[in-house]
Amino acid sequence: MVITGVAFVSGFCIMTIEMLGARILSPYFGGSLSVWGSIITIFMLALAMGYLIGGRLSTRNPNAITFAFFFIGAGLFSSPVILFADGIMEPIFLAIEDPRYGSLFAAIFLFFIPTAILGMISPYSIRLMVDSHEHSGHMAGLLFFISTLGSAAGTLSTSFYFVLWFEVNQILWGAIGALITAGCAILITHYLKSTQEVKQSRPYEKKQA
Amino acid sequence: MKRNRPSRNIALKWLPALLVVLLGFPVAAETIHEERSKYRDITVTQVRDRRCLLFNVHRGDRNQTCISMDDRYRLVFDYTRMTFAGLLLKPDPKRILIIGLGGGTLPLTFADLLPDATIDVVEIDEAVVNVAEEFFFFSETDNLKVTVEDGRPFIKRVGIRGESYDYIVLDAFSGDYIPEHMLTREFLEEVKRIMSPDAVLVANTFSTSRLYDHESVTYQRVFNEFFNFKLPTSGNRMIITQLDPLPPRGRLVTEAQKIAEGLEKYGVPLLEYPRRLSTRVDWDMSRRILTDQYSPGNLLRDN
Question: Does A99 touch chain B (CB under 8 A)?
Answer without folding.
Answer: yes
